[in-house]
Amino acid sequence: MTLRLLAAQALQQLPEALRKLDPRHLWRSPVMFLVWLGSVATTVAAITGPSVFTISVAVWLWLTVVFGNLAEAVAEGRGKAQAASLRATRTDTVARLLADDGTESRVPGTRLKVGDRVVVEAGEVIPGDGDVVEGIASVDESAITGESAPVIREAGGDRSAVTGGTRVLSDRIVVTITAAAGETFLDRMIALVEGTSRKKTPNEIALSILLVSLTLVFLTAVATLPPMADYAGAPQDLVVLVALLVCLIPTTIGALLSAIGIAGMDRLVRVNVLAMSGRAVEAAGDVSTLLLDKTGTITYGNRQAARFVPAPGVSEERLRDVARLSSLADQTPEGRSIVELALTQGADDRDLPAGATFVEFTAQTRMSGVDLADGTQVRKGAGSAVAGWLGTNPSPEVTDVVDEIARSGGTPLVIGCIDAGAAEGRVLGVVHLKDVVKQGMRERFDELRSMGIRTVMITGDNALTARAIADEAGVDDFLAEATPEDKMAYIRKEQEGGRLVAMTGDGTNDAPALAAADVGVAMNSGTAAAKEAGNMVDLDSDPTKLIDIVEIGKQLLITRGALTTFSIANDVAKYFAIIPAMFVAAYPSLDKLNVMGLATPQSAILSAVIFNALVIVGLIPLALRGVRFRAASATSVLRRNILVFGLGGIVVPFAGIKLIDLLVSTIPGIG
Amino acid sequence: MSDTAAGLLSIAVLVLLLAAVYVPLGDHMARVYTSSRHLRVERLVYRLSGVRPDVEQSPRSYALSVVGFSLVGVVVLMAILIGQSHLPMSRDLPGMPFWMSFNTAASFVANTNWQSYAGESTLGFTAQMAGLAVQNFLSAAVGMAVAIALVRGFVRVKDGTLGNFWVDLTRGTVRILLPIAFVGAVLLIAGGVIQSFSDSTMHTLSGADQVLTGGPVASQEAIKELGTNGGGFFNANSAHPFENPSGYTNLLEIFLILVIPIALTRTLGTLLGRRRQGLAVLGAMVFLMAVSLTVVTVAEVGGHSATAQAAGAAMEGKETRFGEWASALFGMATTGTSTGAVNSAHDSFTPAGGGGVLVNMMLGEITPGGVGSGIYGILVMAILTVFVAGLMVGRTPELLGKKIGSRQMTYVALYTLTTPALVLLGTGVAMALGATPDTMGNPGGHGFSEVLYAYTSGANNNGSAFGGITVTSTFFQVTIGLAMLLGRLIPIVLVLLLAGSLAQQGKVPETAGTLPTHKPLFVGMLVGVILIMTGLTYFPALALGPIAEALA
Predict the structure, then answer these.
(1) Per the CB < 8 Å rule, is B552 touching A587?
(2) Number of residue pairs across A and B with CB atoms under 8 Å?
(3) Residue A462's CB: how many other CB atoms inside 10 A?
(4) Edge-to-edge strands of the sheet including A477-479?
(5) Where are the membrane-spanning stretches (chain B) (predicted)?
(6) Is the CB of residue B205 less than 8 Å from the CB of residue B183?
């Protein structure tokens, strides 16, 4: 987001920020409410005893409140824009309600009840959330996911859930409604991105308690100051006391706290993940165990040819070319990967010779292959199937290779060939198929490990295969032949040890585990039950995103901590500006504390107030964007942030207040 | 030997002595509070008082026991002080006035030992021994019990209990305070501190008779320092030659002041099963003590005020047998530990030196703090530190495997609010009263410092007096009395509730993503948070007192 765009948004949200000056709204943030009270008090003082100084302080105190509101309004504004576009898709649909006797009647979509069955045909909008109980259709879900490629939805299985507001592109389906109007996924999504259902998260509440107590400490310090000042012979003006109070209380974090939270949710929305609560986002930062499905997350999801192992007496080129020949017409991912591998190893790219017929894989033969016009036959398949077809047992060398590949977790594909005219065929060799780990996964897992997060691979494979892939991918642990119960047990075990667990899932049988996990990300392509059970939904149905979610959670917490630290550290400089200004008349020696060399007491106080207001504006981009996050150990992340926001928080205001003072001191009546 | 060499040497000896007992004493205290064995004398105490020693208490029950025990202590002590003329060995002294007795009872029960009276001319031996000295033991044992309860909160997992207060109280007294105090008293007597039950009459050179007040001083003195109490037998406290006759006894007293608070960090580490955590806490304490000692010593030795320069040295209010170095060292130790004993008049310190000891108390008595209260005080600050800065590692805050949520923060916030509120409200109200300037011993910023010091000392349970100010008016007796009592009991109750909420939790395992709390980085953060929080709270008040004076 560029600053220019942000400025435009800020301008656009200004009316909203002014509307939020209503004290009933500000009451939610006690810190800002106190600033509001201070603004009212100084305004009264400015009216009864107007001076350039008093009026300036009053104006800047009001601006402090407005800037705080602006931060929140801009953060909310982004969600509102998104909600508006979602709302546009929730047009009033007409549902074709299917009665038990099979007759159809047309009712408004808003009148549908849970359990109703509706018919949706090509070109029609699905009237509500539900499960497909009959038929198969391609559905355009771009309204929700932003992804234009249609998806397949079919009865039974884990791809049966449809979302209200999406459009059927082909075929006809019957849908059982699973959510009443007003409680659909789309409705919830609108409420979420709009922030209407936003509640303070546990950590926000705890932080608010700290901010309130700090505010009370400063309130006490300032409220008890007048008798001390009177004794010192330096009675203090109400306006000055209010200015001191506002500068001391943690206005920076108080003003930006809700914006940080909203922006965190918004960052998730931007990666197409919907969090059902801010609590889940916070939990994501705390996660210490990630359960990742092997297929689709760690590996590409289908086995691919990795190498050719020729049988004794067969050249590698011959095996390569025959294997390629056998797969040219094979459109399975495995077949395509063999052709690709052969190509990279130098095979030519000739097409299948004329007259060749493709022999498809069947469950009975467990082989596929090709018959050439000259009578040559080629088959590839499981060792035993090919042996059966050839009528001979493969050589011990080939058997060894087959066993070795199976042991390493791969799939051995034996290539057999009966040459034209030959009496009997022979085994040419073995193609090693294996799960290919996605590029960069090992690095991702290393990063996660450095952040203290364990990755656990979940797979239906046997332990042997699982271990091989786990080693290759660099995960910390794996769960082989995993049933939903196993997953559940694993989550419980981790949680008993005090660890927070995150997982993804899409099937109905994942629902209990999704509900038990601290962060359960349901795939949007999954069933309604899964989506209901998780506390986040990934609209792209990309399980890899769990890692992004964790990073966004951490970033949210870091931003909150960084701005709190910055806010408190700022107070040091403000004291050095205001305290000498207040008491230099009574104790001239205190001028030595005026290390910034501020022009006059009035310019010093006003400069501190102005800095206090401007720093809110200056930090809005950071609050919305989040503190830059990089995967590293807690110690190194902390050291950097302490340096930037702790020490920076002490140093920056000294420079800032001095600069403002240089300008302010030119104003007649102040300088 | 030059003053500097002697001063540095005594600091070195002190450090060596503390280092020598650190491990054995710390581990002994850990065993005291974890052992399942009861001594015979302890069984007798339990039987007589009807305590079932093996019953664990809930946080609420533990807190009620502490508060009830303390309030009963106040009432009993008030009765002794008011009715002392009816007690044996009363030296024919009258009973204490009501509000003074309230102030004194609150003071000794709260481990503060603020004294608005002069010991030798106000109290008989029975009131000193059966009244004040008993509270010197018990209030110290209470502090340790609360600290141990908080540590148990961190150690226990999904547990609703914090131990048994009566057992902790008894064991702390019987197995820790009594034996060390006994040895301490014997060593003090060997050093010349008096121990008698009569006054003595001296014939002066001019032929007149002078009565010198005697009494069981050494036995009182040992626990006065060991329990970080600080209430002197004599008005002059440890500046009095009968309480603290020589450089040797002076060093011994400083050692006694520091030994338990310092060694408790070892106890902490041992009980947590993380020795390095104990060292980290000690590191933060020692760093702040070193800074404080440097400031006060430099101010007293080098940075003389105008008056001191005119006199040639800042020796006003200091004993010539101790000198500037030993006075500064004692001042740092006594204000850093909530002891409040003094061997010199803090009122007469240079502005920077007096400000130094004042700030020492404002830190919240955690450098290294009172017996027990120092540990729970600094652990509360550690929670505050992980909360503010811990978020910056990208996890919700946790300390020692316990999550710091809104419940914990509520207790911590109220804790950190209590003492500043008592100090500032007390000082503010006092300054608002027209009569207050008349009670001050000095005009201007220094007079204000006297009032600020009084409430700071009371609310932080230190008990040392800046001096100068007259605090015998009912207003001061009541408000400082309340500041002491509330400044003691409110934090204790909050700490116990905090401990309970921590004990209930499970334990979060440590990973590479956890903020390590035993490394220098965290120690630095802890020191930073303590300094910034204290500075922000008290800077305006300090500016009107010591700072204005020091910069003049």
Answers:
(1) yes
(2) 221
(3) 12
(4) A273-275, A536-538, A519-523, A501-505, A289-293, A454-458, A477-479
(5) 62-83, 134-155, 176-197, 251-272, 279-299, 371-391, 412-433, 475-500, 521-541
(6) no
**The token pair that represents B209 in the structure block:** 């008779």
User: Residue B357 has what pLDDT?
Assistant: 94
Q: How confident is the model at residue A125 (pLDDT cuts 50, 70, 90)?
A: confident
- Taking CA atoms, what residue in B is nearest to A287? B395
B-chain residues near A450 (CB < 8 A): 512
pTM over 0.90: no
Judge whether B291 lies within some domain: no
Phi-psi region for residue A452, left (φ > 0), alpha (ψ -120 to 50) or beta?
left
The pLDDT score that the predictor gives to residue A644 is 93
At A148 the pLDDT is 67
Query: pLDDT tens for residues A153-193?
Result: 888 776 788 888 888 888 888 998 888 877 777 777 777 77
Percentage helix, strand, coil for chain B under 3-state DSSP, each rounded to 5:
70, 5, 30
Q: In what order do the strands lie in the sheet with A136-140?
A: A151-154, A136-140, A167-170
ipTM of the complex, rounded to two decimals: 0.94
Tell me if chain B has a CB within 8 Å of the CB of A636.
no
A218 to B536: CB separation less than 8 angstroms, yes or no: yes
The answer to whether the Cβ–Cβ distance between A637 and B388 falls below 8 Å is no
- pLDDT of A576 higher than 60: yes
pLDDT of residue A295 exceeding 80, the answer is no
Which positions in chain A touch B547 (Cβ < 8 Å)? 590, 593
Tokens of B194: 């008096």
Q: How confident is the model at residue B307 (pLDDT cuts 50, 70, 90)?
A: low
Is pLDDT above 90 for B242?
A: yes
Nearest residue, CB atoms, B405 vs list A202, A220, A561: A202
Among B391, B399, B383, CA closest to A627: B391
**Angle at A642 (CA atoms; ends A640, A644), nearest 5 degrees:** 70
Predicted local confidence at residue A146, as pLDDT: 65
Domain-located, residue B510: yes
In B50-200, alpha helices (H):
59-82, 98-109, 119-122, 125-126, 134-155, 165-171, 178-190
Å between A144 CA and nearest CA of chain B: 30
| Count of structural domains within chain B | 1
Is residue B404 in some structural domain? Answer: yes
The answer to whether the CB of B409 falls within 8 A of the CB of B390 is: no
Please name the residue of chain A whose CA is at the shortest distance from the CA of residue B446.
Answer: A232
Question: Known catalytic residue: A293?
Answer: yes
The predicted structure's pLDDT at residue A195 = 67
Degrees, nearest 5: CA angle A41-A650-B550: 80
| A204, A205, A208, A210: best to mutate for the B interface, most B CBs within 10 A | A210
Q: Across the interface, do B404 and A220 touch by the CB < 8 Å criterion?
A: no
What's the CA gap between B65 and B53, in Å, rounded?
14
Q: Do A637 and B547 touch (CB under 8 A)?
A: no
For residue B209, what are the CA distances in angstroms to B202, B215, B229?
6, 19, 34
Mean pLDDT, chain B, as a whole number? Answer: 93
Domain span holding position B453? 371-551
- Specify if B403 maps to a domain: yes
Asked whether A180 and A130 are in contact (CB, 8 A), the reply is: no
Task: Give the closest-approach CA distance of A206 to chain B in angstroms.
Answer: 4
Test B541 with A221 for CB contact under 8 angstroms. yes
pLDDT, residue B373, reads 96
Count of Cβ atoms closer than 10 Å to residue A51 Cβ: 15
pLDDT in tens, A234-290: 999 999 999 999 999 999 999 999 899 888 888 888 888 888 878 888 889 889 898
Q: Choose the catalytic residue: A116, A266, A293, A321.
A: A293
What is residue B191's DSSP assignment?
T
Has residue B441 got a pLDDT over 80?
yes
- The answer to whether residue A149 scores a pLDDT higher than 80 is no
String of b and e for B422-439 (b: at least 16 CB within 10 Å)? bbbbbbbebbeeeebeeb
